[in-house]
Amino acid sequence: MQCVFVQFRCRPGKAYQVADAIYDREVVSELYSTSGEYDLMAKVYVPQGEDVGRWLNDTLFDIPEIDRTLTTITFKAF
């Protein structure tokens, strides 16, 4: 599995609604509320062999009230 972190910027006042929708899809390992430019951060394990961008697009990025995302792909853990 490929571990990625995805940050979500939500429309004003919609972070809880987006968080609920993310959890309903049962595809994230961890989900946090964050300060700063983005509202939420999720740790996601993309199944082996899947195209990361397509998989994220098909499973998470169509949630209403998301304005922007930032995906960080991870490499070997130390």
CATH architecture: 2-Layer Sandwich
Specify the overall morphology: globular
- Count of helical segments? 2
List low-pLDDT spans: none
Rg over CA atoms? 12 Å
Helix content: 10-25%
* Percent in strands: 35-45%
CATH class category label = Alpha Beta
- CATH-defined fold name: Alpha-Beta Plaits
CATH homologous superfamily placement:
Lrp/AsnC effector binding domain/regulation of amino acid metabolism (RAM) domain
Strand order of the largest sheet: 2-3-1-4
Which helices and strands, and how do they pair?
Layout: E1 2-10, H1 15-24, E2 28-33, E3 40-46, H2 52-59, E4 66-73
Antiparallel strand pairs: 1-3, 1-4, 2-3
Describe this structure in a few short sentences.
By secondary structure, this protein is of the alpha+beta class. It is 23% helix and 38% strand.
Defining traits:
about 80 residues, alpha+beta, Alpha-Beta Plaits, four-stranded antiparallel β-sheet, 2 helices, about 40% strand, Dimeric_a/b-barrel
Task: Tell me what you see in this structure.
With 78 residues, the protein is α+β, with helices and mostly antiparallel strands. The chain has a single domain, classed as 2-Layer Sandwich (Alpha-Beta Plaits), CATH 3.30.70. The mean pLDDT is 95.
